[in-house]
Write a structure and sequence with these properties.
9 helices; D-Maltodextrin-Binding Protein, domain 2; Arc Repressor Mutant, subunit A; 296 residues; five-stranded mixed sheet; 41% helix; elongated; alpha/beta
């Protein structure tokens, strides 16, 4: 069996403390993970892990093996990166995280285009709005929408994220249009659980207005709110990247167009500029160019 692969498997088990989690991470069976670890122990003639029904811990030999294995794997990655740079071919796997709505709306298509250009590269995308520790989760790149990105991370802006109030023609026909933001509490409002759940902020020229709404339906994902508003569920605040097509097809209409919500920024976040792999750099440059001219 490949000893470098066995080292990689062992390092994952040592980090996660779980054979099952390692199997999921590396896309192999649990039996194969166990076999790689056993083979490595046989090659080294040492027990590397203490296994119980509840935990997996390192032996003294395992701690030494982990340190050396990480060094060897890092060296191998550097060799692969240098070689792939010379051949203009990116290799390996990148792990990304992104909100569900932006992944659904645009990132999945952008990644597909990028992978078509780099056929030796693999990308694992984890979607969700929950904050994760990029280092602990071994995430190479996080795509997040924020007005204040995490100061501990390196942030590269990809695009502006504008949001507008929208409703379906059916809802407007039944309930009418608000003439002013202060009329919104009298309407059925749908809100994002993590952003403006009970209060919406609007701007018009130099005027700023906070409106307390009575949310009849909230969700922690914008794609859910999109489906609800398309079904005539009420008025909601959505990013333009998610519903531009629906506006062009007159399936939704903008409410109070003279009032705007504060813009945010779509960022690519990563832990450090040091040792940034060629694959991550290439993906960053591609995403900046891909989203630079989007109409939303």
């Amino acid at each position: 069996m490949d000893r470098l692969t066995a080292m990689r498997v062992f390092c994952e088990v040592a980090t996660s403390g779980s054979f099952s989690a390692t199997a999921d991470k590396l896309d192999m069976s649990r039996a194969m993970v166990t076999r790689y670890v056993s083979e490595l122990e046989s090659w080294l003639n040492a027990r590397l892990l203490q296994r119980t029904t509840r935990s997996v811990t390192l032996t003294d030999a395992g701690e030494q093996c982990l340190r050396r294995s990480q060094q060897m794997l890092a060296l191998m990655e550097n060799i692969e990166e240098e070689t792939s740079s010379d051949n203009a071919e990116l290799r390996g796997q990148l792990r990304l995280t992104c909100s569900t709505s932006f992944a659904f709306g645009h990132l999945a298509r952008a990644i597909s285009k990028f992978l078509a250009l780099h056929t030796m590269l693999k990308i694992d995308l984890q979607v969700g709005d929950s904050t994760v520790n990029l280092v602990e989760a071994r995430i190479d790149l996080a795509i997040r929408i924020s007005s204040e990105p995490d100061p501990l991370l390196i942030a590269r802006p990809l695009a502006v994220c504008d949001s507008v109030l929208v409703a379906s023609p059916a809802y407007v026909s039944q309930s009418g249009l608000p003439a002013h933001p202060q009329d919104l509490p009298a309407h059925r409002c749908l809100s994002h659980s993590n952003y403006g759940r009970n209060t919406w902020r609007f701007q018009r020229a130099d005027e700023t207005l906070l409106v307390d709404i009575a949310s009849h339906f909230s969700a922690n994902d914008a794609t859910v709110l999109l489906q609800a508003v398309l079904a005539g569920g009420g008025i909601t605040l959505l990013p333009t990247y998610l519903m531009a097509d629906h506006l062009s097809k007159d399936e939704l209409q903008i409410i109070l167009p003279e009032w705007t919500a504060p813009a945010m920024t779509i960022y690519a976040l990563f832990p450090s500029r040091r040792h940034l792999s060629p694959a991550v750099r290439a993906l960053l440059d591609f995403l900046v160019e891909e989203f630079a001219s989007q109409p939303w």
